[in-house]
Design a protein that fits this description.
The structure is a single chain. By secondary structure, the chain is an alpha/beta fold. It has two domains: 6-206, Spore Coat Polysaccharide Biosynthesis Protein SpsA, Chain A, CATH 3.90.550; 216-266, no CATH class. It is built from nine helices and twelve strands. It has helices spanning 19-27, 47-57, 72-80, 101-112, 144-147, 161-166, 178-187, 209-212, 214-231; strands at residues 6-12, 34-41, 61-66, 87-90, 96-97, 117-125, 131-134, 157-160, 192-203, 238-247, 250-259, 265-266. 33% of the residues are buried. The mean pLDDT is 91.
């Protein structure tokens, strides 16, 4: 097969309940010049059986079987080691994309920002694929400074392959918040643009990694933002503060910057 325009990595772990829908939404794209790399983190359910079934039917599918570590950054990096595309992306194994996702995203990045990153709007769905509305983050205008405290560069993201290696891939010292950390690094060296089309469907359910590992998610997010402060040489002026609330047994965190030597909070 000729080199694909897009390489998309789907990291999976015990995803038998949702990954067929995820894979099918990718294979159904109107834009066909892509490769799908499924990187498994040592699943113990029927995930690998499903992967094998799809890989036998479609030559664009590559598979990586890893020992279980629970570190999504390692799983994603192992997938991209097989990538040959000019542009990279990741899709979570419980989410879906619209039929025109690759087509619109590829056209947009080629026309507007061939060396940077673009992201799209997303909608929320539940276990039964019921549409719950547009994601709230879609309504926040992008800026490098806003991104520092708000992960607005959500799904779907498409970026030039060179960018992935310039920032060192996904940080394997972070078990969670790796995509936020990646986007913060990208914002410091390249242009980021927002394609205001709903092309990604983000699933909310009880088995989500972000819910199951919420304290770890908060800890890694704090580290990612602190690292960005150091890179931007803002750590000598501001302290990062995390305010937590427990809502329905789920930790909700808000990150703020407090100016050193002052009581005023900078949002």
């Amino acid at each position: 097969m000729p080199f694909p325009d897009i390489s998309v990595v789907v990291p999976v772990f015990n995803s038998e309940n949702t990954m067929s829908q995820t894979i099918q939404s990718i294979l159904n794209q109107s834009f066909q010049n892509f490769e799908l790399i499924i990187s498994d983190d040592g699943s113990t359910d029927n995930t690998r059986k499903i992967i094998e079934e799809y890989a036998c039917k479609d030559k664009r599918i590559k598979k990586v079987y890893n020992d279980h570590t629970g570190c999504i950054s390692k799983v994603i990096n192992s997938g991209f080691k097989l990538a040959n595309g000019k542009y990279y992306s990741t899709i979570d194994s419980d989410d879906m994309i619209s039929k025109e996702c690759f087509s619109q995203s590829y056209d947009y990045i080629v026309k507007n920002n061939t060396k940077g990153l673009i992201y799209t709007d997303h909608a929320i769905i539940n276990d039964r694929n019921k549409l719950l509305g547009k994601g709230k983050r879609c309504n926040i205008d992008y800026s490098k400074n806003v991104l520092l405290l708000n992960f607005i560069v959500f799904h779907f993201r498409l970026f030039h392959r060179d960018l992935f290696y310039r920032v060192g891939g996904m940080d394997e010292s972070l078990y969670r918040a790796v995509d936020y950390d990646f986007c913060l690094k990208v914002s410091e060296i390249a242009e980021i643009k927002h394609l205001k089309e709903i092309l990604y469907f983000y699933r909310i359910h009880d088995r989500q990694v972000t819910k199951l590992n919420n304290p770890e998610q908060v800890k890694c997010t704090f580290k990612a933002i602190n690292n960005a402060l150091k890179r931007r040489r803002l750590d000598n002026r501001y302290n990062l503060v995390c305010k937590k609330q427990n809502i329905n047994n789920n930790i909700v965190a808000k990150f703020i910057l407090m100016k050193k030597g002052d009581i005023h909070i900078v949002l």
